[in-house]
Design brief:
Elements lengths: L13 H16 L3 H9 L2 H6 L11 H14 L1
Helix pairs in contact: 1-2, 1-4
Length: 75
C-alpha cells in the first residue's frame, strides 16, 4: 500500500479539511455556505494548501483556519 502523499494524490486530503473550514467561517462570519466556500478557495491559504511541497496538508482544519484568518486580517 502506497502511503506517500504526492501532488497527484493530495486532492484526496483536501475536501474534509475544507469542509471543516467552511463550517468555521460560516459560524464566525454569519455567511452562507456558498460565500464561505468562495472565500476559502480564493484564499492564499488554499493556494498553498493545494501544493504538496508546502506541506500545509499536514495541518488540521483548525490550524488551517487560523492561518486563513490571520492572512485575511493582514489584508
Amino acid at each position: 500500500m502506497n502511503l506517500n502523499v504526492t501532488q497527484q494524490n493530495l486532492y484526496l486530503f483536501l475536501p474534509s479539511k475544507i469542509s471543516w473550514m467552511v463550517d468555521m467561517l460560516m459560524e464566525d462570519e454569519g455567511i452562507s455556505m456558498v460565500e464561505a466556500i468562495k472565500r476559502i478557495y480564493q484564499s492564499e491559504t488554499y493556494r498553498e494548501l493545494e501544493i504538496e511541497k508546502t506541506k500545509m496538508w499536514h495541518l488540521g482544519p483548525v490550524a488551517l483556519y487560523e492561518d486563513f484568518s490571520a492572512r485575511r486580517d493582514r489584508q
